[in-house]
Amino acid sequence: MKHTSLAKTAISHYHLLARIGAGGMGEVYRAEDTVLGRPVVLKLLAPHLLANYEARTRFLREAKLASLLDHPHICTIHEIAEADGQYFIVMQFVEGQTLRQAIDKRPLALDSLFSIGMQIADALAAAHVQGIMHRDVKSDNIMITPHGQVKVLDFGLAKLIERQESAIAIDITCDHEPVGTAASMSPEQARGERLDHRSDIFSFGVVLYEMATGRPPFKEKSRAETMNAVINNPHTPVRELNDEIPPALADVIDRMLAKNPGDRYQTMPEVIEDLRQVAQSTSAAPSDFPGGLVIPYVQPAKQTWYGSLRRSIDKAPGSTGVAQRLKFSSFILIALVAIGAIALSVRLAAYFNQQSDEKAIETLAVLPFINESANPEMEYLSDGITDSIIYRLSQLPHLRVKSRNSVFRYKGKDTDPQAVGADLGVQTAVVGRITQRGDDLIINAELISIADNSLLWGQKYSCKLTEVLAVQEEITKQISAKLRLRLTGAERDLLAKHYTENTEAYQAYLKGRYWWNKRTEQGFQKAIEFFNQAIEKDPSFALAYSGLADCYALLSDYGLLAPKEGYPKAKEEALKALQADDNLAEAHTSLAFILFIYDWNFSAAEKEYKRAIELNPNYSVARLWYSTYLSGMGRHDEALAILRQAQEADPFSLIVNRNVGRAYYFSRQYDQAIEQLNKTLEMDRNFIRTYTYLGSALEQKGMTDQAIAIFQEGLRIYPDERILLSRLGHAYAVTGKRAEAQKILRRLNEIAQQCYVSPYEFALIYAGLNEKDKAFEWLEKAFYEPADKLVDLKVEPQMDNLRSDPRFANLIRRVGLP
């Protein structure tokens, strides 16, 4: 490199040797540290900018950001100083050549590409973990030392992605100013938009493209034309320029160069993992230089082994000058290629062994995010973010994520994450807080190791309400990376999937799910209102249609809406959801539930349940509802097997524990049912449906006094609960307390004047009274309605005294039960 003369020879205790570069922010000098006797590089703020506070602050920010990084592939900052009014940064002197010089307009061999690429990726990953993005990743800013080590230089445009208040928070570079090198900047950077670490991933893709083809993907005559190409023009496919590049590597580069940040790799660990897999599957043999293995840069010197050997050959007998030198060059080339190949193999083997030694984390609990705002209306958002992270991560087949039912029992409690994690039996836990400040949100998220309470990852995000969706996705991707999950392309796509691009629709959807999860009549009605708002904003929003389906289905299942009013609406919305997205597990689950409980299309229902579980094996609702189907079909062993798996995964889930007791009841294992349902009540005595099956199991055991007491306890909590009333009426009837049973019948008639009461509830009491004609009269009404409880006719013990009647067998046949 050509050096210019010096205006001064020293600054502080640094002796300036030569100016080696200059830019808009200042000049760069090679110098000697006269105190420590080592070569260094000094970067001086340009004289005309010294008086500019903004420029001076931005200049110093480079060093402050880079000084946060201590990594073998990042240039080290030794000192930030000021002397005689001159601000300067003292950096490590890196001997060698730039990657641009090594490429020299010709592609590198695959082994060189993988070695250099992985080192760059490792450096960027380390920066991103610290919350720092580079914003000017290019081959000119990457040095290759004589030993083949990569050093990423020049964090001059570096910016904090987001850090805690205690960290450096200087940010002079405007997000809307397209600073950087045009040919390597991302489309969002070229447009002057707000950036995140995915911009560095794009720029790194440009570097890989250049190593693979010898040329950048976007390079026009002017900066403006180049930026336009970056934003609008597709790059020439890598294999059109170099057909020796494996298709899998071309796919990696194409994904990194996606115009939309959401279509790229979302984290550097994902890039590293795919590069590793491609390298492992590729037999990359060194090819002739140039364009082959990066030969270590050799500084000419009299005492180098290179010089000594060359002079020996020149002096050898019979030497013919040029010919001997050509022989020498060939000899050196072969030697260096061999040495480099061995060194590369050692480096790659060490890298792969290190990666394989890191075991993926298999279990996780996402604890309810805490709403630290004074506004209680933001509660929907803290719950919604928690639900979203659970939902996205639960789609990964090799990660067991605790369900919402398990983790939300800790909501509102001052709990220690380590204690909760140990209680839930997981290796890691996610905790978070949300704070509203005017129109802005601050979201803190942390991933904690339960074994030692150490912080595996933490990040603070400042955003607008409209940016919450992007933040949720980013948190999910960061967590999956920190868990060291080896994701397939399809699994990565699941994490990055957008169910809507309309932020207002998404906000309405979160509010809908918040109210739906209350499982009350008012909650369902409010949820319907918000889901409809979401659909108005985005008519293709499949999750909102699925939410509506769940509202109408549970309104009818809970006896709050007549089946003929609720279930057809639920089915209609489920089909709309599937029309919008046929791969939505929730919609298949909702449809399966309706096909089972209302349409009595049992084979189609099972098919839909299996499809839902195939799409998302960790979607707990699909397995839970499938177990009720299996119980109704009399397939008790299968139902209990699924529920035991669910119980093992979520031991504190109320609905799972209740349904285990329900399955024991229908399989007539009453002792196990009573034990299980008592345990469920110990967890929460307000969980109403537990009383239904606990009292019924006690009754079947002949413990009628205890059964009546249980039903009465439930009714004290929920007066006029129709199902509990009918079960209490049945218990009165079978114990000969006919007057009390008749009183319950009258009360149900009174309630029926105000709201829906299923004919099945009347039939159940008449069955207990052994008034068979009346019982079948009401069962016929239930059939023509049709009432959902008829799917349990085959297994309900309280109907046993009717089974010998031919009318019962006829009813079973007409319902279609096997």
Task: Write a structural description.
By secondary structure, the protein is an alpha+beta fold. The protein folds into 6 domains: 10-92, Phosphorylase Kinase, domain 1, CATH 3.30.200; 97-280, Transferase(Phosphotransferase), domain 1 (Orthogonal Bundle), CATH 1.10.510.10; 305-357, no CATH class; 363-497, TolB, N-terminal domain (Rossmann fold, 3-Layer(aba) Sandwich), CATH 3.40.50.10070; 498-616, Alpha Horseshoe (Serine Threonine Protein Phosphatase 5, Tetratricopeptide repeat); 740-818. Helices cover 52% and strands 11% of the residues. The strands form 4 sheets. The protein has a 6-stranded antiparallel sheet with strand order 1-2-3-4-6-5, with helices on one face. Strands 12, 13, 14, 15, 16 and 17 form a 6-stranded mixed sheet that branches. A hairpin with a 2-residue loop joins strand 1 and strand 2. The longest helix is centred in the middle third of the chain and has 36 residues, at 322-357. The N and C termini lie far apart (86 Å).
